[in-house]
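For the sake of transparency, this paper describes our internal protein records without simplification. The tokens are whole numbers drawn from a learned vocabulary of local backbone shapes. One such record is reproduced below, unchanged from the form in which we store it.

. . .
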Amino acid sequence: MYSRSRLIAKYLRYYFTASNGRGHGTHSPFIFEFITKVLNDKKTYPEYETVENLRNRLLTDRTMLNIEDLGAGSSVSAGKQRTVASIAKHAAKSKKYGQLLFRMVKHYRPRNIVELGTSLGLTTSYLSLGDRSSKLVTLEGAAEVAAFAKKNFEELGLTNCSVIKGDFDDTLPICMESLPSLDLVFLDGNHRREPTERYFSQLLPKIHSDSILVFDDIYWSQGMEEAWKFIKEHPAVRCSVDLFFIGIVLFRKEFHEKQHFSVRF
């Protein structure tokens, strides 16, 4: 993981070189629509309160969970046990990005959604509530965390999502076999270069022109930054959007030449 000072330096470089996030000067109709109607949608949807109420409860939950960390590990705690409150505080995606994923699902209506890295299920809940008619499969390596997330889904009445427990190397192929195509994928489960690149390659057979892949923490470490570069440069990727804390890749055939956008968010 990059040091805090180095991460801040990278963020400042991104902030001052990225477009202003209003869509001005964007020649791609798809990206212009994404910026103006999804990224900058300032409406307060009732689903936001549903998930944030859950987050607030989790932030006070002292239940201890055993963690089988199969990824790059936690920058906060290297222990085998962590409280729910600690996971909610340090491992869960912030509401800003959870709500962006909600708006992406609401706007693009993906039929099949996959998430690598359930954690406590906060981001999963945003994805699920974006379109209750979608099918959402979320993968989690830690069994006790997955079971806890499943209870949260039951509490919120999320009937369109299912949890698969186990190492992604074992569970991703099972997940892939169960879905005819992948419309939206959020990868937030392993912050290392080789597995991230490998999962991306494994997803490609089920990708189509309208598929959207979202990668978390693309500047978390040198390895993740290198993985992001590899993914952006892959021949199948036609367009990428860099929001610093997440990266989005598109496969749309309308992009005759590869395009990369860095957008302030």
Q: What stands out?
A: Confidence is low (pLDDT under 50) at residues 73-78. The chain is about 45% helix and 20% strand. The first strand starts at residue 64 and ends at 66. Residues 178 and 199 are 16 Å apart (CA to CA).
